[in-house]
């Protein structure tokens, strides 16, 4: 069994979908959470000067999407065939499109402007995204986004939909029956529930 070491900040963010794959896949790993001086010292050794990075027997892999796909393939969470694997990438790509629109909101310091940006994002980006993914889930008809079993797409969406539902836009999220059932379903998977119970409590 390879030795895995995940290095990320002490937040959920882009590290959490990776941790969820580790949990559901039943894979042991070192959850290395860095801050301050430790990150400053480590940064020059990373491929892109950013986190997360995964070390596999000392070899380093960057970019959260690449890490998720690698680990999903190792743990049977990347779909049952090439079509399902492609659909997983399609769904994850849609999440990336949404997150790209969040950059002005993440970086804005003025609270009034931040609120205005979020309202615009909710109307123009978040609600259309939720409409679309509610339909994707309903059309698949299994309670999962791809096929009839959990995949890395479900774990990625569990994290980011949870960020919307329990974080920045809880009220709009309430009307999405399929997505709310999905969050309960994935959160109730034994290995995921165990991880949610023991994971460090963080602000993000």
Automatic annotation (TrEMBL):
Return the SUPFAM superfamilies for the record. Answer: GST C-terminal domain-like, Thioredoxin-like
**Which UniProt keywords are present, listed alphabetically?**
Transferase
Q: Name one Pfam family in it.
A: GST_C_3
Catalytic reactions of this protein: RX + glutathione = an S-substituted glutathione + a halide anion + H(+)
InterPro entries (alphabetical): Glutathione-S-Trfase_C-like, Glutathione-S-Trfase_C_sf, Glutathione_S-Trfase, Glutathione_S-Trfase_N, GST_C, GST_superfamily, Thioredoxin-like_sf
Enzyme superclass (EC):
transferase
EC number, UniProt record: 2.5.1.18
UniProt-recorded Gene Ontology molecular function terms: glutathione peroxidase activity; glutathione transferase activity
Question: Keyword Ligase, does the record have it?
Answer: no
User: Where is the GST C-terminal domain positioned along the sequence?
Assistant: 81-204
Q: Which GO terms describe its biological process?
A: glutathione metabolic process
Q: Where is each GST N-terminal domain found?
A: 2-79
**Name the UniProt record assigns to this protein:** glutathione transferase
């Amino acid at each position: 069994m390879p030795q895995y070491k995940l290095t990320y900040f002490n937040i959920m963010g882009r590290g959490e979908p990776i941790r969820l794959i580790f949990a559901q896949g039943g894979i042991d790993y070192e959850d290395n959470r860095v801050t301050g001086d430790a990150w400053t010292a480590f940064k020059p050794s990373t491929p892109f000067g950013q986190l997360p990075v995964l070390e596999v027997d000392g070899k380093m892999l960057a970019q959260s999407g690449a890490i998720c796909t690698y680990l999903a393939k190792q743990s049977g969470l990347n779909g049952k065939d090439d079509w399902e694997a492609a659909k997983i990438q399609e769904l994850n790509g849609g999440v990336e499109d949404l997150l790209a629109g969040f950059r002005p909101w993440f970086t804005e310091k003025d609270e009034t402007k931040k609120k205005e940006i979020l309202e615009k994002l909710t109307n123009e980006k978040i609600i259309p995204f939720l409409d679309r993914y509610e339909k994707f889930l309903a059309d698949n008809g299994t309670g999962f986004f791809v096929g009839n079993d959990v995949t890395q797409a479900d774990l990625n969406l569990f994290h980011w939909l949870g960020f919307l539902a329990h974080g920045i836009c809880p009220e709009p999220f309430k009307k999405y029956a399929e997505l709310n059932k999905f969050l309960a379903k994935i959160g109730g998977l034994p290995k995921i529930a165990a991880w949610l119970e023991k994971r460090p409590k963080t602000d993000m």
